[in-house]
Amino acid sequence: MSMQKNYYRILQIDPTADPSIVKSAYRTLMLDLKSHPDHGGNIDYAQAINEAYEILKNPEKRKQYDKSNFIAIRKNKAQKQFFQLRCHHCNQINTISLTLNETEMYHTICTSCNKALFSDFYESRQYPRYKCELNVYIQSANNKVKLRGKCSNFSRNGMQLLAPIPIKLDETVLLRFPHHKDFSIIAKIIRIEEIENPQDKNRYRHGVVYIQAQCE
């Protein structure tokens, strides 16, 4: 096997990734390869992905590859005002500043997968959330974004909004509900995450806080 290739980079994962992450990354890349018109005929790229997966899915081959390529987890020995946190979504090690306030901490995302690092911790301390499945019309303030999405849960100060494309962070949006046409909400996007295994076309999960509710 070739030791010159960085198989972790090919699969877009961290060297600490466990087998389930390796498998998930492989499937995602191959699915994207098949669906993307520009990559459909890229045989070399497909071979590189398959070669990387063949090595990294096998514990013994992976161990030999790591040893030959001097891949090791190096602890960050920076100043004491930083600490390290492993992302529970992708296993990437992130360096976090201890000087962040609570709001900044809430919005901190992983440097690898761009998912929120602290959302579960903070949301557990806030208002109760209620599961639902409501269709939502989403419209940005400048009318550049017009989408159909879903509300998957809500609380007294915000909701979780699913949409087919990512909506810009800090974007102000108008939310309308088909079955409640006289009611609408002006809200702000505070968090964006890509869903690993979406149930439908809504591939992006957004954290939303209410600004104003309106009844016509």
UniProtKB/TrEMBL annotation:
CDD domains in alphabetical order: DnaJ
J domain segment(s): 6-69
Pfam families: DnaJ (PF00226), PilZ (PF07238)
Keyword Chaperone: yes
InterPro entries per the UniProt record, alphabetical: DnaJ_domain, Hsp70_co-chaperone_J-domain, J_dom_sf, PilZ_domain
Alphabetical keyword list: Chaperone
KW Nucleotide-binding (keyword) present: no
GO molecular function terms attached to this record: cyclic-di-GMP binding; misfolded protein binding; protein-folding chaperone binding
Superkingdom of the organism of origin: Bacteria
SUPFAM superfamilies according to UniProt: Chaperone J-domain, PilZ domain-like
GO biological process: ERAD pathway
Protein name: J domain-containing protein
Lineage: Bacteria, Pseudomonadati, Candidatus Auribacterota, Candidatus Auribacteria, Candidatus Auribacterales
